[in-house]
Structures
1.
Amino acid sequence: MKFYIDTAVLEEIQEAHDMGILDGVTTNPSLMAKLGISGKEAVNFHYKAICNIVKGEVSAEVLSTNYAGMIAEGDELSKIASNIVVKIPMTGEGLKAIKYFSAKGIKTNCTLVFSAGQAILAAKAGATMISPFIGRIDDSNWDGVQLIEQIVHIFGNYHFNTEILAASIRNPLHIVKCAEAGADIATCPLSAIKGLLKHPLTDIGLAQFVEDAKKFM
Ligand code: G3P
């Protein structure tokens, strides 16, 4: 399973990159807005800075909701760097845009996927990857990981090449469950990635080794 980080914060991206586990980055307008980045030039400059850190895929989201706007923006975003993936919302207009980019050989990430039916449509339109938002599904009292399992099963039935990118991950257990379910990619906040590091027996064992090492140092 590939690990992406779900943030626009450059320091966090660098930290995950330095850990040697980072395969890519996802961002969205809310994550950009949190940093106070505004204006097309500033946003594009920020994407460039992210692509300078990470050579893996970097999802950059279009802001338009109509087909013409999405393809104009996506074409521009794809020119920022060769590892940019154009992120497009799961709508009828979005599907048309995915088909357009697929025909041009430009990678797409279909975002805001909340059902297996939406996943099938995005795959049929030629999406490179789809983003089911598992944390938000859990928030609404359904089972986000179960959706990943369902999509893995369906895509396996028909040998779709579209990758399943588990998004809206909130904690380390989500990551492990998505790996068990067969997600191709998990995009996670840095806190969830760091949460995977922790085990009390590791801390106790290390403290013991450090203590014992003093006896012969
Ligand atoms: O990758 C999608 C993600 O940014 C949404 O996460 O926590 O806002 O549901 P969240």
2.
Amino acid sequence: MSSIDSLLENNRTWSQSMTSGRPDYFRQLAKQQSPKFLWIGCGDSRVPANEVVGLMPGELFVHRNVANLVYPSDLNCLSVVQFAVAVLKVEHIIVCGHYGCGGVKAAMSSQHHGLIDSWLSKIKDLYVRNHESLDSIADQETRSDRLCELNVVEQVEALSRTSIVQDAWYSGQNLAIHGWIYGLKDGLINDLGVRVDHLDQVPEHYRFQREG
Ligand code: CO
């Protein structure tokens, strides 16, 4: 069997295992989704969102891109955030980066990687802004891991500055944004402690004023 066929075979086995003992499982799930969490993570194949936090189908809304970036001009990412927040009413947005991120490493180097260099420009800017503290870290891996952490914090801030998230807070919706980072070497998530769940935490200049 070729490897691509084995995926379909795996799928049949999985579907059967999910319905053994609960024949209605997929029919019930198909009626609606009501996830409480939105995950914004890296596309890296070693960080499968649902698996690392032990959530079942229907429990986690997921958006992944290279290096878990949130650009205010990214229609794809912002549409996911808008749908998750305004329609699904998720209560938590988790930005989860990971140590050893290839996107972060690429942004730190001056090597040309093609179109992806444009996507990663946000991390390059972040690196330049923090180069003094980062360059004082002698070990290269530790240095890039620190930038992985800073990148997560940056994306948490970017989300808190969107009108989508601020609209939710203005309307009294419970919504917290979390910054986490996953370790490829131990499978453990580290909470970076940068939770933002209220408009007061957003610097004034980035708060959209509302009437009344
Ligand atoms: Co990555």
